[in-house]
Amino acid sequence: MNWAQMYDCYGDVHRVPELLERVGHDDDAEAWDELSYRLVLERDLVFPAGFAALPRLVRLASRSARARGLAGTIMRCAAGGHGCDDLLADCADAIAEPRKLLDRHLRSRPADYLATFLDWLAVEEQYHWSAVVGDFSDDFYQVACPHCAAEVTIAIGDYGHCSVIRDWHLGDVDRRNLRPASPDDLSAIGRWMHATAVRDGQDVLADGITYLFGQAECPRCASVFSIADEYTASNRPVM
Fold first, then answer.
1. What is the DSSP string of 156-172?
2. Is residue 193 within 8 Å of 209, Cβ to Cβ?
3. Quick one: CA torsion of 87, 92, 97, 100, rounded to 10 degrees?
4. What is the CA radius of gyration of the chain?
């Protein structure tokens, strides 16, 4: 790796390799904190040094929760405007390696289950879901009705399972109940998300996924559309 070109958030090219050496030999909390900040700024913008560090982080991930979490954070930023597409492509093998590791961790039903679940989605290049899926206690998704173009808010959680049009003065206008998908009708990524949550005893997550991949009725024109299809069409990154 030519670290002379792999700058971090400060523009430094030497500090990240030094920190990787430190955390590789000792679980140094201070070094991990500095490394995390230098590679990913506020969990949003990843720098070239982040992708350059990814193979090393993956190798450490089997014995380090900090390495696993930081590698996942970098992957969740991979769809952003980082200008490192060539470098990311060079990391393809390293990106593929965490799949089994993440799955094993999910099976253990860890305290950081949702974060690990989102990391797995990022590894599978499902960046739009990795960025927004929550614990379904209070989730909201904005979609455009494919028939009348109305801006529809989808609520899944304690607020309800409904589609509404929000008005600045009137509040939520004309709530319509969502229509959850049958688990048997889920396909592709939706089927995996639901099956994994069920396998691991994440009942609220599994139930929320059936609504996320279900149907909504537009409160304005009463047409029915797929929530996941419309959200994906509007938010899938161009890679």
1. EETTEEEEEEEETTTEE
2. yes
3. 120
4. 20
Residue 225, strand partner residues: 216
Nearest 10 degrees: CA dihedral of 128, 162, 229, 89? 10
C-alpha to C-alpha distance for 205 and 213, rounded to whole angstroms: 12
For 17, 53, 97, 154, 163, the CA distances from 56, given in Å and listed in that order, are 10, 5, 12, 40, 44
Instruction: Classify strands 215-217 and 160-167 as parallel, antiparallel or unpaired.
Output: unpaired
pLDDT for 13-62, tens place per residue?
Answer: 899 999 999 998 877 899 999 999 898 876 567 888 888 888 889 889 88
| Rounded Cα gap, residues 45 and 67, in angstroms | 18
Residue 214 CA to residue 202 CA, distance in Å, equals 19
Per the CB < 8 A criterion, the answer to whether 41 and 47 are in contact is yes
Q: Distance (Å, rounded) from C-alpha 50 to C-alpha 162?
A: 39
User: How many alpha carbons fall within 13 Å on the CB side of residue 155?
Assistant: 15
In this structure, the chain runs to a length of 239
d(CA 219, CA 237): 28
Burial label, 193 (beta-carbon count in 10 A; 0-12, 13-18, 19+): buried
For 176, list phi and psi in degrees, rounded to 5. Answer: -125, 135
Query: 70-110 pLDDT, tens per residue?
Result: 888 888 877 655 555 566 666 666 667 778 889 999 999 99
Task: Please answer whether residues 215 and 225 qualify as being in contact, where contact means their C-beta atoms are separated by less than 8 angstroms.
Answer: yes
Across the strands, what pairs with 152?
Answer: 143
